[in-house]
Amino acid sequence: MALRTWAKLVGTAFGAAALVGAGQLGLAYGLGVLDFARVVEVTARDGWTAQLAWVAWFALTAAAAGGVAARGHLTARSGAGTRLTGGVAAGLGAAAIVPLTMQPARGAEVAGVNPVFVIGACAVLGAAAGIFAAWAALGRNAARWNLVAVSAVMWVLALVSVAPSLRSGEQNSPVRLGVLDAGFVPDDLAERASLFTMPAIALICGLAVGLAARRRRLSIVATALAGLPGPALLTVAYLIAGPGSTRVQEMPYWAAMTAAGAGVLGSVLVAVLGRGSATDRPRKPAAEPTPDRPPLPQRDAQPESAIAKAATKSGPGLPGTGAAAAITGRATVAARATVAARAAVAAQRSDDEMRPSDTGVITMPPFDGFTPPQPPKQGRPDGEISDWVSGLGR
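Structure (tokenized):
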């Protein structure tokens, strides 16, 4: 791989990851999804845990975006090592959000927690785990589609959740990752729905991306794993942030733990149920001849050849075909009569006059597999020839 191509791959992955990470943080600060200026008491620490999940997810998606952007700089000979290099570059670019989160966290007051250190650790862990997301995005088309689809749905939920507070100008309540926390949704319904929102989104995205992969005729393994990457980022983000202390944060935490399985379930269903047997699948049509690939030469038909005449000649078939047809029950009455007549003639011969075609048994000389064949010995004349030779001397 040329040095210029390496530079383009690494530069694109690093720059795109840093740009996407900074852009998501700026949007989250502007919309109020992240707010480190709040005073968080011990009894209300779930709001702080929810923001940690957002920070880890921003780092993960930033690294994945770097892998998606750098995909165009891979060549046909690029292997797993090249993709891993691009993933590491994307992870380093996603780490650019670490100082962008630690600086605002200096104004946060969380009882019993060092907010600057905790927020920085979450960003670093998210960027490190994002290396694998970028590596998957660099290698598989289905992985890129699923990452983009799930990330877009998460941002739609966040925008819908903060929309009422933007209209009224009031400070919105903490918005949880992957949960619809809009003001027009009752609290009881929002709490119950938080357990099913992320698995449902992962399942739908897995089905949709799996169908797209099947239409593109990707391999069955690629189709079955098409629903994993996007939900896996949600799972890792909540693992980094933790489950919280009350049901407010525990419900989405356990939902995120099952999101990856739901996404894989959707894509596996598409891969397994959409595949018929090998005989039912449409065969790929033969490629049309091109200047680079001329058509194969074909031999003209020769109707006057001996083989053609023998194939079209009416009359008795090859020796033994009548017997085979009679045994299998596919012979005509005339063929069976012919076989019976030949069997009657063969039965009148003595054992010395029997031919192999009469009995169907061919005697082969013994062969042990090791002794080389011996040439036939030249015997002395005997019988009538010996009598004739002996009479010449009389």
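Residues 228 and 240 are 18 Å apart (CA to CA). The chain has a mean pLDDT of 78.
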